Amino acid sequence: MAQDDEKSIDQLNEEADIAADYLEGLLDIADYEGDIEMGIRNNRPTIQIVADDDTDIKHLIGRNGEVVDALQQLTRLAVQQKTGERSHLIVDVDGFLKRKRQHLRDIALDAVDAVKESGEPYDLKPMNSFERKVVHDVVREEGLKSRSHGEEPHRYVTVYLRNKSEDSEDAEDFDQE
What we know:
This protein has 177 residues and is α+β, with helices and mostly antiparallel strands. The chain is built from 5 helices and 6 strands, in the order αββααβαβαββ.
């Protein structure tokens, strides 16, 4: 399937079911209690792991979300193995990604304010593709432009004022991830 082709609701639900089964198995192996909630957001299957025990759930998030990221990658591989197609599913644990998005939004808005005040480009610290995408979206919403620079894992976003000639353009130069 081409990356531009949108998957049907049935395909997205199938991916969510496969992912939920896989994660339930992992939780059983790790002896963690947790409920799994499935949904579809922005044409992506989403899986939320919710637990009553704050101690266990923190272990599933990890430092700076490293465990959540690993769970997501493993789950995507499990779905791809069953369906034969790459999945863009999102795995979240106890609302971690929602909190992370808000934090990134705040960082992006601070950068926007700095650029508007100084008129100078503003470089952010290196970020992963998810983080950069959130920042690019916020910067675009605020009427400025942004661009990613560098090589992984040191790829970062620079926020710029929009040139007068760009005011009429809708195209943005950001990661398509």
